[in-house]
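Render histidine kinase in 3D.
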Amino acid sequence: MMTLVDELTTCAGQSVTAPSSTGACLILISTTTPAAIGKAYRLEPGEHVIGRGSEAEVRIDDHGVSRKHARILRKSDGSCLVTDLESTNGTFLNGLPVSTAELQEGDRLQVGTVTVFRFSRREVLEQREEQLRQALSAARVGIWDWNAKTGQVTWSEHVDRLLGLAVGKLSGRAMDLEEVVHPADLPRLRAGLATALQQRSQVDVEYRIEPAGSGYRWISCKGDVLLDAAGQPARVTGTVMDITARKQAEQELHRQALIFESISDGVVITDLAGGVIDWNTSAERMFGRSRKEAMGQTLFSVLHPGEPDRLTGAVLTALEVHGRWSGELEFKRADGMACVCESVVVPLRDAEGRIIANIMVHRDLSERRQLQARLVVADRLASVGTLGAGVAHEINNPLAYMLVNLHLIREGLDKLEAQGAPSEPVASIQQLVRETTEGAERIATIVRDLKVFARGEQESRPMPVDVRRSVELACKMADNVIRHRARLVTEFEPVPAVEASEARLCQVFLNLLLNAAQAIPEDPSSVTEHEIRAIIRPGEPGKVVVEVRDTGVGMTPEVLGRIFDPFFTTKAVGVGTGLGLSICHGIVESMGGSIHAESTPGQGSTFRVVLRSAAHEVDLYPRLSATAPAGARARILVVDDEPNVTVALQRSLASEHEVSTANSAQAALRLVNEGGRFDLILCDVMMPGMTGMDLYFELGRSAPEQAGRMVFMTGGAFTPRTTSFLRDVPNLKLSKPLDLAQLRELVGRSAEASR
C-alpha cells in the first residue's frame, strides 16, 4: 500500500534524513495546500488510486480532481504504470494528456488543476531537504516561517534564489518584520497574522519587501498555523512566491483602465462582428446609455433601436480594405438631446499582431456644432434685422410724401367743396383719397411693426415698453399660422409698462405663440375645438404676467424638464432648431424676469412670463397736440436726400411759413454757413455722404443755436451708430411717415418760440 514518507512540519534548512527503502515514490511539488509541498509518497507493489473520494488511497483536496481520478500500478519488476480512470479534467504526464503510460524518473504527473507530483524510482530516497529543494525549485516557491512568540521570520534559501539574491541575504537567520517589510504594508501583514492566530485560519497576504540595497519586490505569502504541544498557535509556516511581475502588470492594467475611463473621448471596444464588448464612462455620457445596455449590440443598434443597421457593414468593410474608418455620427440620446460626434475606428491587435477586436474613438462635436448653429442663427437674425430696417427705411421715404400729398389733396378737395364745386364728383374723389390714405396708413403700420423686430439686438438698454402693444404685434405676426389650427383669444387687463426691449419682447411672445400653434395639429375641421389664449394680467407688486395657453398635445414631465435646454427639440428634423425656447429664456432673464411652463400630456401647455414693471414711463417719440398756434410765421429748412419728400413738406407748409429745402446735408451746411438762420430744421437722419448726424455735429461747432433747432426725421435706424445717436441726442425725433397735423403744430410752436 501507499505510505506517506513523513509530514512537512519544519522550515527549510532543517535537514531530516528519510528512511531507506527500495521502490518508487511520488513527491508533491504543487498543491492547493502550501504546507504540503515536498511531501513524499512511497509506492508499494500493487494498485494505488488517486482521487478526492473517501475510497481513494491518496486523497487530494483539489476540486479539479475526480473522486477516482487515476490509478498507479507498481508491477513486480518495479515498473510503474499510470492509468486515467475517465476523470473529468484528465491526467497529464509532462504536460500531455495520457490514458495509460509508464512512469520514468523525473516525470511530472498532474491531476486536477494544480496538483503535481514528481516521480522517482530511486532505491534510496533523498534526504528530505533535497526533496524539498527540488520540489520548490520546480514550482518557483520558497518557504517562510514566522514565530508567534518572538515575532521574527525566517526564510528558506529558495526565497533568496526566487528574488535573485545571493544565498544568505534573507535565509540563514531570524529577523524582525520591520527589517524587510515596506512600512506601508506592515500594519496589514501584522493584522493578517493576528487574525490567522486567533481564528486558526490560513494566512494569505501580499506585501512588499526590501532586502537591504535590493529594491522593493512584491511577494505572496500563504501559510498554515501550527500548534505547539499544548495545542496553542505557535507559528505560521507556508510558501512564498515572487509576484512582482504580476503586480507590475496589474498596475499597468490599472493605469490603462484609468486612462480608458478618464479620457474625455468616448471609447468603444467591439468584437470582430461589431458587437460592443466594452465602453468607457465618456461613451456612457456621450450616448446616454449605460455599458450594460450596449453589451452585445452594434453601436448603430444602440443609438437607433429598431432601425436597419446602416453603419456596421460599412465600418467592417472599410477596416478590411483600408485598415480604418472615420466619419460623423448623428443620433439622439435616450433623453432626446440631439448629438453629433466625430468617429474613428481601427483594429486592435495583440502582441503577435493578430486582430482581436476593434476600437472606436468618438469625439463629441455637439457643443462645437451648437456654437456654430448659434452663430448662424445670430447672423441670420442680424441679416434679417438689417434687411428689415433697410426695407422699412426705403418704404417710409416714398410713403412719407405719399401721405403728405394725400392729405394736401384731401384739403384741396375740401376747399373746392367749400367754394361750391359740384359735390358729387368731389365726394367721389374724396372717397378715393380716403381709401388710398387708409391703404397707405396700413402700410405705415406694417412698416412700423417691422421696425420693431428689426431693432433687435440694437436695443441694448431696457426701457419702458407697453406690453399690450408687444403681445398684439406678436399675435398679428403669428395669426397666419394660428388661424389654420385654433381660435386666438386675448384677455388683456390694464397693466403698467414693463422694463424691457420691445423688439426682443415681441420675439419672445411670437415664439411662444408659434410653439403653441405647432403643438396643435393642422386640421381645418377641428379649428373651433382648439384654442390659443394670450393673457395679460397684473402679478405680484411690481410685476406683470403674460401667459400663452394652448390646448395642444402637451408634454411629458421628462420633456418639460428639458424644454429650455439649448438645441433640445421634439420636433421633426428641419422643423425646429431647439434654440427658440432657450433664447426666450435668456431674453426674459436678461430683463430681470422669469419664464416657466406647465403641461399635461393630451391637454395642452401654459407658458408664463413674469416681467418687472417700469419705474417710470418715457415716450421716446412724443406725440404733439393737433392744435397749432395761429399767426406765427416761421423760417423752416427741410433737409432730405429724397426730393419728393422735401417738395411735399414744402408744399404742405409754404402757405403759412417760409420754407427752404436742401437735398443733401452739405447743401444745408452751406446755407447756414452763408448766414441763413432758421427757426426749425427738419432733417433726415440717414443720407448718403454726410448724414443728418454729421450735419448736427458740424453745426454744433459752427452754429450751435442752429444745431439745437434741428428735428430729426427717421424712416428707421438700422445701424448701431444711428440707434445710439437717436437714443442720446436731446433733440426731438419724428418717425416717417409724418403726421401732417402734428408737424404743423410743431412748426407753429417753433415760430412762437422764435418771436
